[in-house]
Amino acid sequence: MKSNLKSIILFCLLMFVYFSYAQTDTLVKKEEKKKIKTGWTFGALPSIAYDADLGFQLGALANVYYYGDGSTYPEYLHSFYIEAAYTTKNYGLFRFFYDSKHLIPKHRLTVDASFLPDAMCDFFGYNGYQSVYNDTWRNSKKYTVDEGYKSRAFYKYKRDLFRFAADMQGTIYKKLKWNAGIGILHYNINEVNIDMLNKGKKPEKMLPDTVQGLYEKYIDCGIIKKDEKNGGLHPYLRGGITYDSRNKEANPSKGIYADIFLTYTAAFQDQKEYNNLKLNLNFRHYVPIYKDYIALAYRVGTQLLLAGESPFYVNNYMNTLYIQRVLYEGLGGGNSLRGILRNRILAKGFAFSNIELRLKVWKFDIGKQHFYLGFNPFVDIGIITQAYQWDKKEIMAVKDPEDNIDDYFKFKTSDLYRPHVSAGMGLKIAMNENFILSVDWAFPFDKQDGASLTNFYVKIGYLF
Questions:
Q1: Is residue 310 classed as helix, strand or coil in its secondary structure?
Q2: How far apart are CA 327 and CA 458, in angstroms?
Q3: Poorest-confidence range of 29-33, 156-160, 346-350, 387-391?
Q4: Maximum CA pair distance of the chain?
Q5: What is the per-residue pLDDT across 335-358, written as a single tens digit (0 to 9) for each?
């Protein structure tokens, strides 16, 4: 029944797009001369959202824009973003973000300070499809202990992340820019605190406290090393160049954005072996199809480890020059590959692509605010480029005798380099071009990337 309902909803959305676009020519002809925003604009919402990986989110957010005399509209002069929220799956979000191209003349400055406590962070093992995902082990809603259920916390560990980042951009020549930044990533990692999660719950809702999770098994097998199992402090330096010919940032209808940058991440004392250098390349292209109403948007990117070693928890972090969303985790989840399990593809290096057809179906005003309604069908793809090296004999030598190694690992190279693919549909409601409420639904093509079709994500802004 649920599957039929989802199909009906999706069909209705598609029909709405079709019939709305049958009226596009009429809407365009009747559209008034473009209105300009000036001064301050304040947008505040209860932070009531949903993420298939993180659960229902409760909190509050506010975004303040300053447009000055409106000569740069829809680009703002200053933006302040504040959010505080917590989810039903024990993920916290406390963030301040500032963005301006005018505080320092001819330079763009962004500052981000975030604290992200996560009582049940996803961990599905290394190397994507080479790590077997068993939905039965964690899905208490579909399976019982007699059917193989272990614990909802089996593919989890506890992760608290504090991040501070300050990035600056200046002009080399016209649309070619230079970028430099500094930051700190501080991770506090441990096994899931079962006692804390069970506090106040009815016996039938409690997590079993005798089941060892995959994170602990990786430690026991020596796959996760002792000097990385509890996290650490990692300051970083970043530098690169950017080419940007987009006509606007929040939802470009034409132009190219491309960047290439290096990130040096430091580590100290017992973790000194984790000093490393990473390379990121990204290319985004926005192709206009029909005026400002229809555009094809796609991006391809890669993150590679050039030198040194990187702890597993930092390999989950996707480096970026502009922190638009709270956290870019690679790969899998609502901030990288929608519909695929969060952090499903954990490797030293990876590549990815996102392809969207962006449609604006209705523009309207409420008071002095300008809105539009849009849809964007999409496809997301990810692949491993630098894998962890397995030593099957060493794993066999120390693994739990009760475990079957085939339940956890596939060592075939064909499994390693098989792409992870998902597809879905997005709904966008935008105010004044920059404040964009995004609702995405997506599903994976392979059950090893997630067995559920209820993968909804409610966030702010387009993915890219």
A1: coil
A2: 14
A3: 29-33
A4: 73
A5: 999 999 999 999 999 999 999 999
Distance CA 130, CA 289 (A): 40
Q: Under a CB-based contact definition with an 8 Å cutoff, are residues 174 and 218 in contact?
A: no
Q: What angle do CA 69, 461, 180 make, to 5 degrees?
A: 75
- The answer to whether the beta carbons of residues 62 and 95 sit under 8 Å apart is no
What are the C-alpha distances in Å from 69 to residues 72, 74, 77, 180? 8, 12, 10, 30
Model pTM score:
0.85
Fold topology of 32-460: Porin (2.40.160)
The angle formed by the CA atoms of residues 429, 287 and 360, to the nearest 5 degrees, is 25
Backbone φ and ψ for 330, nearest 5 degrees, come out as: -125, 130
List pLDDT tens digits, range 176-233: 999 999 999 999 999 999 988 888 888 878 888 889 999 999 999 999 999 999 999 9
Condensed to tens digits (0 to 9), the pLDDT of residues 27-61 reads 333 443 457 888 888 877 777 766 666 777 789 98
Q: Please give the Cα distance from 204 to 157 (Å, whole number).
A: 22
Q: Which two tokens stand for residue 266?
A: 């430091």
**Contact status, residue 60 vs residue 84, Cβ threshold 8 Å:** yes
Residue 72 and residue 199: Cα distance in Å, rounded?
Answer: 53
**Per the structure block, which two tokens stand in for 56?**
């229902």
* Tokens found for residue 358: 């962006």
Q: What angle is formed at CA 293 by the lines to CA 41 and CA 361, rounded to 5 degrees?
A: 80
**CA distances (Å), 21 to each of 254, 288, 444, in order?**
20, 16, 28
Q: Reduce the DSSP state of residue 448 to 3 states and report it.
A: helix
